[in-house]
Every structure is written in C-alpha cells, then in structure tokens.
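Repro:
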Amino acid sequence: SIYHENKLSVFDGHGSNFLLPEICDTHFSIFIRASEAFRQKLISQELEISLDDAKSFCLEQDSEISGIYKNLYGSDILDMSKYDMVVNMDDLSLDTATNLISNAIASRAVS
C-alpha cells in the first residue's frame, strides 16, 4: 500500500477522490474550480496565447477530462457531491486558498 498510517500525503489528479477510499481509511477530497474567464486569462498568460486560443484550449481539455472521468469512473467530474470541499479561485489568493484548505483538513482531523 502507498498509504502508511499516521503519514499525511497529497494526491493530485483527476479521480483521486475515487481511488483514495480504496487505499486509505481517511481522505479529504478537494475540487479547485475557477470561472471560464479566470481560467482563460490564466492559460493565455501561462501559454502566451490569445484569449480565443485559451478558450479553445479550455473547451478541449474540459471535454477530454470529462470523457476520461466518465469512462474510468462512470461519474461526472463536476458532481460536487463527490468532494469534501470546493474552492473557487476567482476571488482568492493562492495563500488564502492554501490556508482555507489547511484549516479544513486540520479541523477534520481533530473532529
């Protein structure tokens, strides 16, 4: 098993919210989301492409990931009931989001 008792681990990836219950007793699944406009602006800057190209990129990636998720897990990646926490990055700094997530995990660990 890749999970060892009393060790904290972070698994980043699509479907980890389905895989983790199979390999460990406790887990905390988080969905990080952002609006289309936010994502397109970020991708445009990161990849140095136009906003129109970033929009196309987002649509292609979303469709591909959604299809893979549906085929592998038989579920919709956007079904928020599958997550313990959803963080909308539109109005949060990275530090604020990190603190929110850390506090939620710590709070759950002691409850």
